[in-house]
Amino acid sequence: MRKPELLSPAGNLTKLKIALAYGADAVYASVGSFSLRARSGKEFDMDSFAEGIEYTHKMGKKFYATVNGFPFNGQIEPLKRHIKAMGELNPDGFIIATPGVMSIARELAPHVDIHLSTQANIMNYLDAKFYHDLGATRIVAAREMSLKDVINIKERIPELEIEIFIHGSMCFAYSGRCLISAVQMGRSSNRGACANDCRFKYELYAKGENNDTLFRLEEDESGTHIFNSKDLNLSAHIAKIIESGAVDSLKIEGRTKSEYYAACTAGAYRRAIDDAVAGCFEPKIYADELNTLKNRGFSDGYLISRPFEKSDSQNLQTSISEGWAQVDAFSEDGKTFKAKGQVFKNKAYELLSPANEKISLGEDEIGRVYQKEGKTFVEFKKLIGPTGKAFESVHSGNVNDICLPAGIPPFSFLRSKTENKDEK
Questions:
Q1: pLDDT at 422 over 50
Q2: Which CATH architecture has domain 325-417?
């Protein structure tokens, strides 16, 4: 069984390194205002973007640059300069949404592969062939496409790579083609500035034909988040997707999400892919890990079942819910950590580390690292900085580096169970 690529979001250089450490085969990122995630694009400048590409290639993995915004006429010349500069950094592909931008990329950076963004809404083999003939080597299928249709496209155009989304935020509009943010907030989602208006709480009013009186429709709390889509989670279907032989890349959404999100999703789906290929697929394991994340509720989207067959794709209660894990600390170097929540002495914190990194169990003057019920934990005897300064506890407002016990890998997280959560 052929392994598809696992493609993770890289919202900044640290998230890029985390995703690769936790098992991603490739990452995608952007610089500037020509991407649909302008906020994450500000996390990179050209120097750090070049560093990210170099770092990724040194690890033998791939880097895709997103240029999938919809430019106005006045942006064409700056866009040309942008694509030329990006091409000189030698990413492995450009993610592009329009034929015009494709033509610019082919002219100015012919050595860079073109991947057609999901914003192009590819749903059938005719459109897929059209863009393939224009030079696209890969299509990112519309989230509304079924696996049956993905297979059909692959059978008809076997040389065309197909990428699908497997996890992350879902837009209530068709393949992200939304104007609500632009109308209400003056921020265009199609140019990377979505204000997430669909996540807001709304009240409904009725107006009579013969007067201008407005009456508020009575609602309970379950009826106010009327646009709010649940998050996509296809972890339970990874084995079926791989068995189809039609999918070349499995993509995780979320460039603006946290370092922990980058680690958790890459690690969970890395294991799901490897287990599926090895014939030991266990969906509950991956679901339990992904349930540690903040989410809007999970849905398996439309790849496996048709849209009209589904009635659970919206979360009408709240715009977001806590996962069962509180992230208390993050360590980039494995020697010290910075607090993300609260860390106390003599309290056990579960350790999340890259799967291929060795963890040394044991005890030293700072604390101990041990295993219990198949999980690894850290307890601190002391909370001290590299200079020896001692703390009774540390929290997210404390910017000091705090020393870790020996044997903890880089890019590790300390987490604990959120209050009032019963998940194991």
A1: no
A2: Beta Barrel (2.40)
Other C-beta atoms lying within 10 Å of the C-beta of residue 344: 16
State the CB neighbour count (10 A cutoff) for residue 270: 21
What's the mean per-residue pLDDT of the chain? 89
Q: Find out whether 248 and 338 touch, Cβ atoms under 8 Å.
A: no
CA distance 15 to 413: 13
Distance between CA atoms of 322 and 51, rounded to whole angstroms? 34
Q: Which residue has the tokens 């770092």?
A: 55
pLDDT tens for 260-285 read 999 999 999 999 999 999 999 999 99
What is the separation of C-alpha 115 from the centre of its chain, rounded to a whole number of angstroms?
A: 18
Q: What is the pLDDT of residues 77-98, one digit of tens each?
A: 999 999 999 999 999 999 999 9
Residue 311 tokens, joined: 């009635």
Topology (CATH) of 5-170+229-304: TIM Barrel (3.20.20)
Question: Residue 375's Cα: distance from chain center in Å?
Answer: 25
> What ranges do the domains of the chain cover?
5-170+229-304, 176-223, 325-417
How far apart (Å, rounded) are the C-alpha atoms in residues 187 and 176?
Answer: 14
8 Å CB contact between 144 and 307:
yes
* ∠ CA 116-117-118, rounded to 5°: 125
Of 310, 292, 118, which is closest to residue 230 (Cα–Cα)?
310
Whether 59 shows a pLDDT value over 70: the answer reads yes
Residue with tokens 């998940």: 423
Look at residue 286 in the predicted model and tell me its pLDDT: 98
